[in-house]
């Protein structure tokens, strides 16, 4: 299999993977088109065209798949911290920070922490 990548301004613009056999070369796009002709749009529509994280680590830049996953994880950690603070009667959290620890190979926990306080308006 051959992978050809077009890079523009430090970002992957397109990736073209091809299956090469003696006298035959078929791209992934051509295979998807053939699948659609044979099985229909509903079946071929299940193909997910995602950026290759391994390739993005080689060419540099943000790894979009990991970036969105990390953003969601931080959002979940912040929401959980806010829930815990509210359960203890707080209406604000000061000095919010994030921390990440590798629990085991390939598994990382993300924590959000701060000081849960009750803020009252000055009258």
Number of helices, counting only DSSP H or I runs of 4 residues or more: 4
Principal-axis shape equals elongated
Mean pLDDT: 77
Q: Give the oligomeric state of the chains in this entry, treating copies of one chain as homo and distinct chains as hetero.
A: single chain
User: What string, H for helix and E for strand, traces the elements in order?
Assistant: EEEHHHHEE
Q: What is the total tally of β strands? A: 5
Structural class per helix/strand content?
A: alpha+beta
Largest sheet entry: 3 strands, antiparallel
Kindly provide the radius of gyration, computed on alpha-carbon positions and rounded to a whole number of angstroms: 23 Å
Could you characterize the architecture of this molecule?
It is a single chain. With 123 residues, this protein is an alpha+beta fold. Helices cover 38% and strands 37% of the residues. The chain is built from four helices and five strands. The strands form two sheets. It has a three-stranded antiparallel sheet with strand order 1-2-3. Strands 4-5 form a two-stranded antiparallel ribbon. Strand 4 and strand 5 (107-117) form a beta hairpin. The termini are far apart. Residues 1-6 have low confidence and may be disordered.
């Amino acid at each position: 299999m051959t992978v050809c990548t077009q890079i523009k301004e430090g970002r992957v613009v397109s990736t073209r993977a091809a299956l090469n056999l003696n006298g035959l070369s078929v791209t992934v796009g051509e295979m998807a088109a053939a699948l659609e002709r044979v099985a229909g749009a509903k079946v071929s529509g299940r193909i997910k065209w995602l950026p290759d994280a391994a390739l993005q680590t080689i060419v540099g830049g943000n790894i979009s798949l990991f970036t969105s996953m990390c953003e969601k994880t931080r959002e979940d950690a912040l929401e959980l911290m806010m829930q815990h603070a509210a359960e203890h009667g707080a209406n604000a959290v000061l000095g919010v920070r994030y921390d990440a620890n590798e629990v085991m190979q390939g598994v990382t926990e993300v924590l959000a922490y701060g000081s849960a306080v009750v803020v009252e308006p000055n009258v």
